[in-house]
Please model this.
Amino acid sequence: MEKFYVDDCPKELPVADWIKSKIKWREATNDVIASSPSAKYMDMVFEFTGDLDGLKKSVSDALSTYGFFGWRTSVGDEKNYGGYSITYNPNLQYDDQDIHQHTLGTKLNAPSDFYAGSSVNHTYLKNSYLDGMSFTEFTPAAKIGYMGKLLEDINSRITITRSRLGIVKGSEVSDENRYHIDSEVFELCRLNIPIIANECFAFQFQGRLPYVLEEGRAYTWQTELPHRVYCHKKTSLDRANMVIGLSPWLSYDKQERYWYANEFYGKKHPFDMIIDGDVTDKIKFLGAR
Model:
């Protein structure tokens, strides 16, 4: 088993890019895309069979204890989008950012710079917001109640990286063209669990009709396709969503600080991993779109 020690990664590169440059990553992803029927779908829907009430209470307790953190940009912290970080990076290069805000943007990027993870304003990328695989520690907020139990169980199976509790405020309509793209699902596959849902909020792929993310469900989608979440009608409620970032093919040894290709690398599509219960047994597959 080849070990990729994070201390050996040059500061110019995010850890993921460094590791992928050393293995046959693109060949592996192409092979799995060609062989997996799930690869053709944009998004998948699951029933959440865990303790939703316990999850709601955990999130409420975390917000009461640690507060709401706005999405950080070069023009300040946003008031209508934020939440708190589920994971953080002890070596984050921005030393003035609370650990509960580590996964909520960076002051080096303007709001428009997040579309494709623009790195233009960074001197180096290791331990930046764009270094998604370096967010491997759970925040105190993430350890509360049932939320903490669920996250620990998932992390014992598949390494959790850059994750957050995402909140869209209902006090202002945000129906604007703020689509963005994220990492490919083989690097960072996001499992989304709605905590507070409302018909005033929507998820949308660019060029497709929007839809509501429902409570009692879980979702995953092709995050490298342009997408957005937004409020299209004012409401007294705020939308809250757990955004759990999974590293499906690379696992992390926290004690020795190295990554390695796990048993799913080059063999199983991340969507199939979630369907088959490799990530958690607290969801049941309902369908794909």
User: Anything to note?
Assistant: The chain has a mean pLDDT of 95. Residues 4-66+143-288 form a domain with the Jelly Rolls fold (CATH 2.60.120). The longest strand covers residues 76-85. Helices lie at 15-20, 25-35, 52-66, 145-155, 270-275.
